[in-house]
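ARCHIVE RECORD
Type: protein–small molecule complex
Small molecule: adenosine-5'-triphosphate
Source of inputs: curated submission
Record status: active
Notes field left blank by submitter.
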Amino acid sequence: MSDSATPSKATSSGIKPSKQQLRRQIRAARRELSAYRQRLASRRLCARLALCPEVKRARHIGLYWPMDGEIDPRPLLERFPHKCFYLPALPRAARTTMMFLHWPGTTPRYRNRYGIPEPVLGRSSAIRAERLDLVLLPLVAFDPSGARLGMGAGYYDRTFAFKQLRPGSGPDLVGVAHQLQCVDHLPVEPWDIPLTLVATDHRVYRSR
Ligand SMILES: Nc1nc2c(c(=O)[nH]1)N(C=O)[C@@H](CNc1ccc(C(=O)N[C@@H](CCC(=O)O)C(=O)O)cc1)CN2
Ligand SMILES: Nc1ncnc2c1ncn2[C@@H]1O[C@H](COP(=O)(O)OP(=O)(O)OP(=O)(O)O)[C@@H](O)[C@H]1O
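STRUCTURE (tokenized, with ligand):
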């Protein structure tokens, strides 16, 4: 039996769900987790991350403000008070890349077009994606080889596309998720950026 949870069972029926169906199923399963389960998962994830050498050696770390049942990476800040943390800011122009803005741990007042809190450029210092040491990426589904399915807008793929041209450059990319977001296999698109590893509340998947 695989250790992926409910949504991947759809694949064992022989009928392959489309990306859209998979997104719907997994997002719904994630939203149903109780507040208690969410807190436990977040604590377990952060304990696991804190042991990863990539996280230990990183000084400038991008993470995200969780929404829609996503696992919460923010307790990492308390574990590493001497590291610098950044949140992504959506690009103003369509189809361009995200910036990362310094985040001291307080709740930003500004909300982007999806209602996600973001620090404000001009008030928080910005860092280019290339200059970060490590980024924790939200995702909707992943597979054990490190393939990632996101929300479908391509923000992370576009922002880290430079890594395809210069392999080994830029930050380590670490997908983070609840264990129930693991599926047996995801198709890889030409623009998908490979993740260094995926960490869940249950385990770490290293693909390279
Ligand atoms: N917490 C978090 N922050 C993130 C992402 C993410 O996945 N999670 N992103 C990852 O790229 C970027 C934002 N991408 C997003 C893409 C779609 C939706 C979303 O809610 N879409 C709605 C439709 C909304 C609309 O059409 O206006 C939906 O699918 O229900 C949210 C964020 C940057 N910040
Ligand atoms: N490097 C890139 N350059 C141009 N367009 C891109 C690039 N990467 C992705 N896209 C576009 O973004 C769209 C969404 O991609 P995809 O469905 O893989 O997003 P996602 O990884 O699920 O979303 P996100 O990264 O926002 O969480 C694709 O249709 C593709 O056209």
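CURATOR ANNOTATION: The two ends are 24 Å apart (CA to CA).
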